[in-house]
Amino acid sequence: MEPKPLSFDQTKLSGISDKTLAIHHDKLYQGYVNKTNEIDQKLTELRKSGQYEGNATYSELRALKDAETFARNGVYLHEWYFDGLRPSVDSGQLSVDSQAPELSKALAEKWGTLENGLKYFSACAMAARGWSVLCWDTKAGTLMHYNGDAHNQGGVWGCLPIIVLDVYEHAYFIDFGSDRKAYIEAFWKNFNWTKTEELYLKAKQVKL
To answer: How sure is the predictor about 94, in pLDDT bands with cuts at 50, 70 and 90?
Structure first.
């Protein structure tokens, strides 16, 4: 696994600083990529050795399998988060519904209005300890929102992330201190609705 570079100039975001992104992407995210590769290698070696025990209280296999989901989800969630960002000037004065017409319509249908949908997402993000995720639920065939207090907690299998917001303090404390609300407002200002519309249109084709 190789780290995915940012798709935008990290010095150009509004409110979210270059320093924050350098730590967040170049160090923290890179660390999850490195650990995912390390865990994969150790699982491969353990499997090939045949010297593993499937003990549910504690075993090397259990520890590696638990770490595997934490590290790999740490990679994937961060990639969805970074992919959803772009400098606010790139979107000019375009409205959300003009940049993401189908997703805006779906949010309005689900939560009454687009504004209500974004307000609810932001409230969920204030309530989460790690991640706030709008996803396409392939079983229910609709948009759903889930919170996670850790990379490998809170998600639902069969759901494809559409909007992913990192609300761990490392994502905003340098720029906003403990003011998470201001960070969430900055997130929306820098949000890439055009790219997210494309992601939504792909995801909604999947129904299990």
So the answer is: confident
